[in-house]
Amino acid sequence: MNLSNALLRHMTGSRGRVSLLPGYSCCTRKLGLWLRKHSLEVTRACTRQLESIAAQRVRRSLQLFELYTKIWDEVALKEFLKAWRARMRRTGRELLFSSVGVTMFNWERDRIDNEELYSYANEIEIIHKLKEATVVCEDCHQRMIVDKPQADIEYCQCKGKGPKEENHWEPFIERRDMLIWRREETDTRSGGLYAYKVFGSFSDVTADEFLRVQVDVDYRKAWDTTAKRLEIIDTDPEGVVDGNQRSDVIYWEMIWPRLFSNRDYVYQRRWVLDKEKGIVVIVSRGVQHPQAPDRPDTYRVNSYWSYMVIKPSKDFDEPGIEFGLTYFEDPGINIPYAVSAWVAVSGLPDFLNKMRQAAKDYKHYIARTQKPEVIEPSEEMDVSSAEIILSSQSNDGINETATKEMISLPEEPNNSENSPISLQVESSSESEVQSSEDELSEQIVEKQSGYLRYVFLTKLFA
User: Fold this and answer.
1) What is the 3-state secondary structure (H, E, C) of 371-402?
2) Residue 76: which residues within 8 A CB-CB, separation 6 or more?
3) What pLDDT does 40 receive?
4) Mean per-residue pLDDT for 332-360?
5) Helix, strand, or coil here: 428?
6) Contact at 8 Å (CB) between 414 and 422?
7) Which residue intervals of 103-206 are DSSP H helices?
8) Fewest CB atoms within 10 Å of the CB: 211, 321, 387, 456?
9) What is the mean pLDDT of residues 163-184?
10) SUPFAM superfamilies this protein is in (predicted)?
11) pLDDT at 433 over 50
12) Whole-number percent of the chain with pLDDT over 70
């Protein structure tokens, strides 16, 4: 009662008023009475709970001790090995297949199927629509200037109008017989990179020759001096390999300046020449292959894809083609916008012109490789054809000896009857010989300037 009176005096003020709720003191009094009445039962329940927890911990410790004893026992070890051998026999076949799969390319998973291949069959028509939407004036229906005017083209005279953008594709470069768009790819590791779409119309190249330039890896090493290593490392076991279609995995190492590692690619390429549809479709994309692991001395370009459609004007073996090439790659280096634009403007048209010349010289390359003796050129063969043949004798990326020989050929022509240069000198006038020398010198300078799109990085950081 003394405790209750003290609490009551504490809750009342100096004027005798109660400062708390009336029911609070009642609940406190009842709780105290209940604890004094049931204290023994509460203590016993807590004791039983603690005993149960302690018993479980002791029992678990004994079980672990017994388990470790059995594991290290000799009989238990033998039983364990016996059970493991039985399990290995049951799963041996699956394990063998899984280990073989590590060293083989999964064609079922990564094959370029027909649906993907023919999804680009209408690319030429799509490019024509893109051309109408971006570089043709809506009012006078004349061409608009992209970056610089070209000969034999009537341009729009409407003021204040220029090329437009369609589906994020913006006109970028216009040169003779070619038009190039670009589109920024934001989902890249390096950032600020572009995919390019090229449309070309060549009247002096056949569709079959242009196709062989794209798919003949040996000839590519002959005319493309940036290809240090280029080879087929795998072929689709279920694919048809003939003159009209093929599916391969290709390894390609490209030469970069000395301050940078060479870039290499591993990509699957499938192409088909469909005479019924009158088109050629080539699709490539980067893959991983066990026969071409990453090398410490090169940088692997994993983000790479391209597709090309070639359409002959009349027939596959007659001159005249239209082609569309769309491609993207991430070389793994951040390049300023102004520098990348300058490299694209100077490098893309130069590369396409080399590809065009290589297609024109492909028949001479085939004639030379099929016969051991030197092939006498036809009247249509020019000095650049001889340059391609001479440079194909070495598959290295940069061959200084071959370059020196090409430079000295016009000054010291071979007197042999089978020499291509001597035949041209005898059948040409002095003015024609001089023009040939000038043309050869210009082409050598162009070949050396072909490295401009790579050497600019050396100039930038030197």
Assistant:
1) CCCCCCCCCCCCHHHHHHHHHCCCCCCCCHHH
2) 70
3) 80
4) 82
5) coil
6) yes
7) 107-110, 114-118, 123-135
8) 456
9) 90
10) Bet v1-like (SSF55961)
11) no
12) 68
Q: 179: helix, coil or strand?
A: strand
At 396, list the tokens: 């290295």
Region of residue 160 (left: phi > 0; alpha: psi -120 to 50; beta: else): left
Residue type at position 169: W
Give the DSSP letter string of 307-372.
Answer: EEEEEESS-TTSEEEEEEEEEEE--SS---HHHHHHHHHHHHHHHHHHHHHHHHTHHHHHHHHHSS
Type of residue numbered 201: S
Round the average pLDDT of the chain to a whole number and report it.
75
Task: Decide if pLDDT at 318 tops 80.
Answer: yes
- In order, the DSSP letters of 53-78 are HHHHHHHHHHHHHHHHHHHHSHHHHH
- Cross-strand partners of 323: 200, 310
Q: Please check whether residue 365 is in contact with residue 219, taking contact to mean a CB–CB distance below 8 angstroms.
A: yes
**Of the candidates 392, 62, 48, which has an alpha carbon nearest to the alpha carbon of residue 220?**
392
* 152 or 264, higher pLDDT: 264
Buried b (16+ CB within 10 A) or exposed e, 27-66: eeeeeeeeeeeeeeeeeeeeeeeeeeeeeeeeeeeeeeee
pLDDT reported for residue 97: 42
Query: How far apart are the C-alpha atoms of 153 and 220, rounded to whole Å?
Result: 33
pLDDT for 389 equals 39
Tokens of 166: 């369609």
- Is pTM beyond 0.85? Reply is no
Backbone φ and ψ for 379, nearest 5 degrees, come out as -65, -25
The CA distance from 301 to 318, in Å, is 37
Nearest to 155 by CA among 175, 173, 141: 141
8-state DSSP, 259:
T
